Amino acid sequence: MDTLIAPAGITYHNGKGIPEWANSLLLTTLKGKSLRVIKLSDDGRSTKGEEILFEKYYGRLRDVCTDKDGAVYLATSNQDWNPSPGFPLPGDDKILKISKADQATHKVLKAKEPAIENLVSGKTIYQQYCASCHKEDGKGVLGTFPALAGSAKVKANPETLIPILLNGISSEQAGAAMPAFNFLSNEEAAAVLTYIRQNWGNKASAITPSQIKKTVDQMANSNKLISLLKGLGPGIITAALVFGPSKMTITSRLGADFGYSMLWIVVVAIFFMLAFTNMGARIGLSSNESLLMQIRLKWGKGAAVAIGLGVFLVTTSFQAGNSIGVGIAIAEASGTPVWLWVVLFNIVGIALLFLGVFTKC
């Protein structure tokens, strides 16, 4: 069976009325535009053969069923928003009845065996994965699926085109999303890209499997770096919050004024920073409620108010240290009074609390 035929409806036929189809599965396809008769083994655990009927004759076949006499009914599906070239046909959509007749009154449509195709054929791969959206003629669907015929992106540098095939395109970037085709082998990806670059009037260079491999390797290395940065992200943010410019200024000032005699304060501060940061992360993971809400639920409102007041004083002191540290740094660099910058940064900090963007965070 073809790798991509878009199966739609399926039913079992016991051979009544059409003995040639005894012990077979009847499968309708949308992309394959055909009825597949899949003959089962006697125990029903494997298949013995397959025949294809009506391929591209009635168009997309949505469903199939049988009646008590063994007649088969097929439903076409050619009136949807994305019809295949040449469809809908007059009278679509319709129900087709298949039953045994004593005499043929129309042209006999004979079954055929599934073709064994080379999967590394660019045309085959295009028909399997791309034609349902971009169409067999490469003209796409206006406003939804872009045309590949005459496309500047298709004829562009391979380094630009290859990532589009491998990564896909999100719906925010285009009218409709395009899935990633990174499951294709290097040979298959090169074949299908070469096919679209050299058909429908496009005249661009072929793309080789080595070019695909080079892009895949570059993307892999890039993804490793992105993953590393994502992993470091929370740590960098936490470190910047705990040991920002203000802390550097204050600890430098301590060292200048007291030498190593006050170093123990920095060591103790780092210990408590690690402990409280770890504790805060654990509390956040354990519940959707805030720390004070959890305290209130467990120990009551009085405990929550008392601890909340302590947390307020701690954070106020923390912010005061930030303001003083930044004030000292700017004052020493500009030769202005320290208090001026401390007051200014506190006013700015309080004012930011009333901005909507901060209240939503």
Task: Characterise the protein shown here.
This protein has 361 residues and is of the alpha+beta class. It contains 11 helices and 7 strands. It has a 4-stranded antiparallel beta sheet, with no helix packed on it.
Strand content: 5-15%
Let me know the average pLDDT: 83
Q: Which structural category fits the helices and strands?
A: alpha+beta
The side-by-side strand order for the widest beta sheet comes to: 1-2-3-4
Features:
elongated, 11 helices, single chain, three-stranded antiparallel sheet, 7 strands, alpha+beta
Explain briefly what this protein structure is:
The chain is of the alpha+beta class.
What's the structural blueprint in terms of helices and strands?
Blueprint: E1 7-13, E2 24-29, E3 35-40, E4 47-53, E5 61-66, E6 72-76, E7 95-98, H1 122-129, H2 131-134, H3 158-167, H4 186-197, H5 209-242, H6 245-258, H7 263-286, H8 291-299, H9 301-334, H10 338-352, H11 356-359
Antiparallel strand pairs: 1-2, 2-3, 3-4, 5-6, 6-7
